[in-house]
Amino acid sequence: NGLRVINTLFDQKNIKTALGLDFKKWITNIRYGYLENNFGIAEGADYTASNRRLLLFPYQNIKNHSLSVENIIFTGKSRVNATFGLSQNNRKEYEEDAFPTPSLGLKLNTLTYNLKWFSKEIKEKINLIVGTQGMLQENKNYGEEILIPDAQTIDIGVFSLLNYDLKR
After folding, report:
1. Are strands 126-142 and 104-118 parallel, antiparallel or unpaired?
2. What are phi and psi of 63, to 5 degrees?
3. For 30, which of 20, 21, 97, 138 is 20 to 30 Å away at the CA?
4. Please, are residues 78 and 44 in contact by the beta-carbon 8 Å criterion?
5. In angstroms, rounded to a whole number, what is the distance separating the alpha carbons of residues 53 and 147?
6. CA 61 → CA 45, 55, 117, distances in Å?
7. What is the CA 163 to chain-centroid distance, rounded?
8. Contacts of 140 (CB under 8 A, 6+ apart)
9. Distance of CA 144 to the CA centre of its chain
């Protein structure tokens, strides 16, 4: 009928930037991103013929920050890759009767790492990769409503990979 569901709009802001440096035996890349979303939450089946784009209660505001640093170091015929990342997700939900205090608030902080050593060729067409990767993560609630419980997570992994290049 040409009608719109009330409060189903969203708006988004996004910026990304990167910086790369290249030296003789070392390359580094730094990346940063920011993303902010506002989402209206439809309640029931209320319709309107209006084209007005206003965010009404309830709605969610989500802000993401993401920073990563990648380093590649060349040591003779082998190389080391070290990548570290840090991200923060801050989610807030606002209800009319609680504004400006969020009724739901959840902050998620994550630190990731990935360290790899690439060997020189052991024999013709064969090389070895050894590494570790993992994550430290913490989420914390603030506000009346709890989306998921507060928690801390630590993941650690080690790996090795033997590569044989078939040249096909």
Report:
1. antiparallel
2. -120, 130
3. 138
4. no
5. 28
6. 22, 11, 41
7. 30
8. 106, 107, 150
9. 25
Residues 5-64 pLDDT 10s: 888 888 999 999 999 999 999 999 999 999 999 999 988 778 888 887 788 899 999 999
CA distance 66 to 62: 13
Element (H, E) at 103: none
Tokens of 137: 């993560």
Of the chain, the end-to-end C-alpha distance in Å amounts to 59
Amino acid at 102: P
Q: Taking the model in full, what pTM does it have?
A: 0.85
pLDDT at 83: 98
How many angstroms separate the CA atoms of 159 and 163, rounded?
A: 13
Cα distance between residue 91 and residue 108, in whole Å: 8
Residues whose CB falls within 8 Å of the CB of residue 97, separated by 6 or more in sequence, listed in order: none
Q: What pLDDT is attached to residue 94?
A: 92
- For the chain, how many helices (H) and strands (E)? 0, 9
Gap between the Cα atoms of 128 and 163, Å rounded: 6
CA–CA dist 64, 72 (Å, integer): 27
